[in-house]
Design brief:
With about 375 residues, the chain is α+β, with helices and mostly antiparallel strands. It has one domain (about 25-30, about 35-320): Sandwich (Jelly Rolls), CATH 2.60.120.330. The protein contains twelve helices and 15 strands. The chain has helices at about 10-15, 20-25, 70-80, 95-110, 110-115, 155-160, 165-190, 200-205, 280-285, 325-330, 340-350, 355-360, and strands at about 50, 60, 85-90, 130, 145-150, 205-215, 225-230, 235-240, 245-250, 265-270, 275-280, 295-300, 305-315, 320, 340. Helix 3 (about 70-80) links the parallel strand 2 and strand 3. Helix 4 crosses helix 7. The protein is globular, with a radius of gyration of 20 Å. The termini are far apart. InterPro entries: DIOX_N (IPR026992), IPNS-like_FE2OG_OXY (IPR044861), IPNS-like_sf (IPR027443), Oxoglu/Fe-dep_dioxygenase_dom (IPR005123). This is Scopoletin 8-hydroxylase. It comes from Arachis duranensis (Wild peanut). Its cofactor is L-ascorbate.
């Protein structure tokens, strides 16, 4: 029999404080979406206002060879417009991707008691965090998602502190995908045609976090969101989707056929077998002085449970991020100011998901 919650506080206690998560709600026999999860209409993704991203994936293996320039042009064009693209022949073994999805399911299928051992405050490492929604202590409406974040410091720490169910596959994914992160960042920075320090890629992507997301089956997906509208704060994100999908990108005003701001057009990023999704983050938009776009994106829930696994690549918190000086001279204007990345992250992680501008505005020149 499904539990009943007399108040919003009692639901919060069950889902957040006791570590049951959204999965605990669904496993208890839930047949309706609780009021605390019903999103306001402007935050929902209306499938009637979406269209599918029909651009073929980019073949990264052709970066070395006669088609190098063509592949570079495809990467740059995507970074300048949607901020999202998919890649194949990326160097991450396909069997590893399958193992990663399986290990994600293994972790989230643990009992609430076992998963709650990784909740903030009791987790064996501050770098390992099991959570639900995004910022449940501040959100009026919760997101339909559970997750575990695995912050990387050393292999030894990862093997010691990351959950046994997923640490091997997650660490292999981080190592393998980091090569394509470097390749893509080098392409983007070289295409800016300005002089930079050789260490620029490492400086802006040296901090890495693997995040496994679980979106339980939802009784009414039209009422909820898995993740609310936002852009990622780091350099670039590498995302593995399963075959169910649910990722949507909001088209930038320049690429939107619909000029009514209340009728925003969302672009569905459909799963492609063996492909990885690449997402340009705020750090690269700021570094490029707005030439490259970090895309606002969100996740729609489904009647089927699904997983996704992201590799986030951040600057170190002590780095000041800002537009490259040569670009500012060339453009004649600095569209963003220099900010300490720790301050930028604090602004993002202490607020709820309210679209791309709620984070980027923090760094915009006034």
């Amino acid at each position: 029999m499904a539990p009943t919650f007399s108040t919003s506080d009692s639901l919060y206690e069950f889902v957040v404080k006791e570590g049951n998560g959204v999965k605990g709600l669904v496993d208890s026999g839930l047949s309706e979406v609780p009021e605390r999860y019903v999103q306001p209409e402007e935050k929902r993704i209306n499938k009637l206002r979406t269209r599918k991203h029909n651009v073929p994936p980019i073949d990264l293996s052709k970066l070395k060879g006669p088609d190098h320039k063509k592949v570079v042009d495809e990467i740059v064009r995507a970074a300048e417009t949607t901020g999202f693209f998919q890649v194949v022949n990326h160097g991450v073994p396909l069997e590893l991707l399958e193992s990663l999805k399986d290990s994600s399911h293994r972790f989230f299928n643990l009992s609430p008691k076992e998963k709650s051992l990784f909740c903030p405050g009791v987790s064996p490492s501050t770098k390992v965090k099991y959570a639900t929604s995004f910022a449940p202590e501040k959100e009026t409406t919760l997101e339909w998602r559970d997750s575990i974040s695995l912050g990387y410091t050393t292999d030894q720490d990862a093997l010691q502190y990351w959950p046994n169910q997923c640490k091997g596959a997650a660490l292999d994914y981080l190592k393998s995908a980091s090569k394509l992160v470097r390749d893509i960042l080098e392409v983007l920075i070289e295409s800016l045609e300005v002089k930079v320090e050789e260490s620029i890629v490492d400086i802006h992507s040296g901090m890495k976090v693997v995040k496994m997301n679980y979106y339980p089956s939802c009784p009414n997906p039209d009422l909820t969101v898995g993740v609310g509208p936002h852009s990622d704060v780091g350099a670039i994100t590498v995302l593995l989707q399963d075959d169910i999908g649910g990722l949507y990108v909001k088209l930038d005003e320049d690429n939107n056929n619909n000029n009514n701001n209340n009728q925003k057009e969302w672009l569905e990023i459909p799963p492609i077998p063996g492909a990885l999704v690449i997402n340009i983050g705020d750090t690269i938009e700021i570094l490029s002085n707005g030439k490259y776009k970090s895309a606002e994106h969100a996740v729609r829930t489904s009647s089927k449970s699904r997983v996704s696994v992201a590799l986030f690549n951040f600057p170190k918190p002590t780095l000041k991020i800002g537009p490259l000086e040569e670009l500012v001279k060339k453009d004649g204007v600095a569209r963003y100011r220099r900010v300490l990345f720790q301050d930028y992250m604090n602004n993002f992680f202490t607020n709820t998901h309210h679209g791309k501008e709620s984070s980027l505005d923090f760094a915009k020149s006034t």
